Amino acid sequence: MDVLKKARKVIGVKQTKKAVERGEAIRVFLARDAEARLTGPVRALCEASGVPLVEVESMRALGQACGIGVGAAVAAVLR
Fold first, then answer.
1. Of the candidates 49, 4, 6, which has an alpha carbon nearest to the alpha carbon of residue 29?
2. Using CA atoms, how far apart are residues 43 and 53, in angstroms rounded to an integer?
3. Beta partners for 30?
4. Strands 53-56 and 25-31
5. Do residues 75 and 16 touch, judged by C-beta distance below 8 A?
6. Three-state DSSP string of the chain
7. Looking at residue 71, what is its pLDDT?
8. Please, how many CA atoms are within 13 Å of residue 73, restricted to the half-sphere of its CB?
9. pLDDT tens digit sequence for 46-62
């Protein structure tokens, strides 16, 4: 997850879905404790698009890795 601190990224379900659809996302991070109704569509889109998925232990850990003060369900590293 160290890559998230330095990389160009987007945080959140909507922004991540847009990045995957546009072909800008090179890796997507999903929090295991996030609601499946939020992460499920992102997971399916990544699998269909061939974007690698990385599961993270918690929303809090993902938020911290992204440098924000709140939890994050989804984040993507961009090209």
1. 4
2. 7
3. 55, 74
4. parallel
5. yes
6. CHHHHHCCEEECHHHHHHHHHCCCEEEEEEECCCCHHHHHHHHHHHHHHCCCEEEECCHHHHHHHHCCCCCCCEEEEEC
7. 97
8. 16
9. 999 999 999 999 999 99
CB atoms under 10 Å from CB of 14, counted, come to 10
Say if residues 30 and 55 touch (Cβ distance below 8 Å).
yes
Burial of 46 (0-12, 13-18, 19+ CB in 10 A): buried
The series of mean pLDDT values per 10 residues for the chain, 79 residues long, is 89 98 98 97 98 97 96 97
Amino acid at 72: A
**Rounded-to-integer distance, Cα 57 and Cα 54, Å:** 10
